[in-house]
Specification:
The chain is mainly β and 121 residues long. It has a single domain, classed as Methylamine Dehydrogenase, Chain H, CATH 2.130.10. It is built from no helices and 11 strands. The strands form 3 sheets. The protein has a 4-stranded antiparallel sheet, with no helix packed on it. Strand 4 and strand 5 form a beta hairpin. The relative contact order is 0.15.
């Protein structure tokens, strides 16, 4: 079972071996996390300090070894303080993410590649 231990520390427990755990520590507090249906990935959303606008705030962690395989920083074309605010898995096994500036992106889970980006406001 995965759990948040402190505001910025996350513990992953291997699905295959209950005694295997990895701790992942972030620079910012964790807002939310979701686990893929196949239990391969955990997506973690953090809340970066406004004084550090270039911090990544979405991370994809591989559950089998606790390694961060990609991380994202929100696009800063409209606002230098823009961050991602929500994440959810889509029906086609991609990741949908929304940012403060009103964009929705669809991301390939395995690579972190942005597939589409739309302005929603």
């Amino acid at each position: 079972m995965n759990k948040i231990n402190s505001p910025n520390k996350f513990t992953l427990r291997s699905e295959n071996n209950e005694s295997t755990e990895w701790e992942v520590v972030f620079d910012s507090p964790i807002l939310n996390y979701i686990i893929s249906k196949d239990c391969i990935y955990t997506i973690t959303l953090t809340e970066p300090d406004v004084q550090s606008p270039n911090q990544h705030n979405i991370f994809c962690i591989q559950n089998s070894n606790g390694k961060i395989i990609w991380e994202k920083i929100a696009n800063k074309t409209i606002s230098k303080d823009n961050i991602y605010t929500a994440v959810k898995f889509t029906n086609n096994n991609h990741l949908a993410v929304w940012d403060w500036d009103g964009h929705k992106e669809e991301i390939e889970i395995e690579t972190g590649k942005i597939i589409s980006r739309n302005f929603m406001k």
